[in-house]
């Protein structure tokens, strides 16, 4: 499969036939097929046999993207507005100066004490249960380490659908199985979570706010419903991603502490810049201890210079969280309102993205590109969810809102008309 000798969609030989051809026990072939299936490389359809997946689960969804030609406005990338990111030079200069005076050597603490203190105070203020703190190289790094700390290949993980494309790639890359759970504006649907856990999912990953791509944010009512479901499955590994911290003005309603093992991660990427590669992780003592232990055998720790720079950014008030949240909110609301005036439904309660259901995803993306707008195809973010497109509004100007809404409405209308032919 890696060399291309077996192509996507190609039917594999029956297990007994392959065993006879290779001169091995059929159980050996069955075990190999099972491993490939658990890793998302092949799929089995009962008596129809096994075949190479049309798009192997380990294929990066980043490849499902639109190449942005010169002159086309890019509202697909998912980046924060550079104008709302703080300058980093002074913070890093101060952190480097401290490092010159007090070099960090092998054997020292992996977490900067002041960063741990501030992070824990913020978590306490948001009602996150008490727990130790670790620092990782971003949210995805934290989630990978937490999943690896508790799960084994073949285990099922309930994930939001539509959801973060990188996460939808990560889970099968770890040899785990994804179980899609529907999402509305208030977060994961409780019935979907209940069904996934009842069917054997060992873990649940929830985005608390600024869900990518829909902008969903878990409300107090939804949190109560989800906690009720989780109490019936106390052995579930719960992972919460609060990457919207400091760019969202909606309150956090954490689910943490409802199950035996849990983790909550907050990244600095959206508020302070993607290149910082720093996230704060807390959780139950066993989970965080396992993450720290495995981290010591790999990178060891996230640079204390980076940690000290982030502390300086926090304490200097480099980011006005309310102003940033308000700026993104105005841009989201303006586009959603303009689309509503044109009869197009859209979603985006929080964060920097707007999700727009469309009848013809490929056609809508192509028509918008022709009209001068590059949007993200929904296929990057969904499994069984209906088609859609994602628009990143982080750097969308007021003057661009109406023309973009016109283009989206025209693209959706043409797709709907074609669907009735």
Count of DSSP E strands?
15
CATH class value of the largest domain? Alpha Beta
Order of H and E elements: HHEEEHHEHEHEEHEHEEHEHHHEHEEEH
Question: What structural class results from the helix and strand content?
Answer: alpha/beta
The third-level CATH topology of the largest domain is Aspartate Aminotransferase, domain 2
Q: How many domains make up the 3D coordinates?
A: 3
From the structure above, extract its key features.
alpha/beta; Aspartate Aminotransferase, domain 1; Aspartate Aminotransferase, domain 2; 3 domains; 8-stranded mixed sheet; globular
Please, could you describe this protein's structure?
The chain is of the alpha/beta class and 421 residues long. It folds into three domains: 15-52, no CATH class; 66-85 and 320-419, Aspartate Aminotransferase, domain 1; 89-315, 3-Layer(aba) Sandwich (Aspartate Aminotransferase, domain 2). Helices cover 40% and strands 15% of the residues. The chain contains 14 helices and 15 strands. The chain has an eight-stranded mixed sheet, with helices on both faces. The protein has a three-stranded antiparallel sheet with strand order 12-15-14, with helices on one face. α1 packs across α2. It is globular, with a radius of gyration of 23 Å. 44% of the residues are buried. The model has no long low-confidence stretch (mean pLDDT 93).
């Amino acid at each position: 499969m890696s060399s291309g000798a077996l192509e996507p969609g190609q039917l594999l030989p029956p297990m007994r036939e392959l065993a006879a051809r290779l001169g091995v026990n059929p159980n050996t072939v069955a075990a190999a097929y099972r491993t490939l299936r658990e890793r998302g490389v092949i799929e089995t359809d009962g008596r129809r046999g096994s075949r190479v997946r049309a798009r192997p689960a380990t294929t990066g969804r980043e490849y499902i993207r639109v190449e942005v030609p010169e002159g086309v406005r890019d509202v697909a990338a998912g980046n924060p507005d550079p104008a709302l990111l703080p300058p980093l030079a002074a913070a890093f200069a101060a952190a480097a100066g401290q490092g010159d005076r007090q070099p960090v050597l092998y054997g020292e603490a992996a977490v900067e004490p002041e960063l741990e203190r501030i992070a824990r105070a913020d978590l306490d203020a948001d009602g996150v249960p008490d727990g130790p703190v670790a620092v990782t190289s971003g949210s995805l790094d934290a989630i990978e380490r937490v999943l690896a700390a508790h799960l084994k290949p073949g285990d099922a993980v309930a994930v939001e659908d539509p959801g973060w494309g990188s996460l939808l790639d990560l889970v099968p890359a770890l040899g785990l199985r994804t179980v899609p759970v529907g999402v509305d504006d208030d977060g994961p649907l409780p019935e979907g979570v209940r069904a996934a856990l009842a069917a054997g999912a060992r873990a649940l990953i929830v985005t608390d706010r600024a869900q990518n791509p829909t902008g969903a944010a878990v409300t107090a009512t939804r949190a109560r419903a989800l906690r009720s479901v989780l109490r019936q499955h106390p052995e579930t590994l719960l992972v919460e991603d609060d990457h919207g911290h400091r760019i969202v003005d909606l309150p956090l309603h954490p689910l943490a502490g409802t199950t035996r093992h849990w983790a909550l991660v907050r990244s600095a990427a959206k508020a302070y810049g993607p290149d910082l590669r720093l996230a704060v992780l807390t959780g139950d003592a066993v989970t965080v201890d396992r993450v720290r232990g495995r981290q010591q055998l790999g990178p060891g720790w996230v640079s204390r210079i980076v940690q000290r720079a982030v502390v300086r950014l926090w304490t200097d008030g480099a980011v006005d969280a309310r102003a940033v949240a308000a700026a993104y909110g105005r841009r989201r609301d303006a586009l959603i309102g303009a689309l509503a005036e044109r009869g197009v439904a859209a979603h985006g309660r929080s964060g920097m993205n707007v999700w727009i259901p469309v009848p013809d995803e490929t056609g809508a993306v192509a028509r918008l590109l022709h009209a001068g707008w590059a949007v993200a195809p929904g296929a990057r973010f969904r499994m069984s969810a209906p088609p859609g497109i994602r628009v990143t509004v982080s750097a969308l100007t007021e003057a661009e809102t109406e023309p973009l809404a016109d283009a989206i409405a025209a693209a959706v209308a043409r797709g709907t008309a074609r669907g009735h032919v």
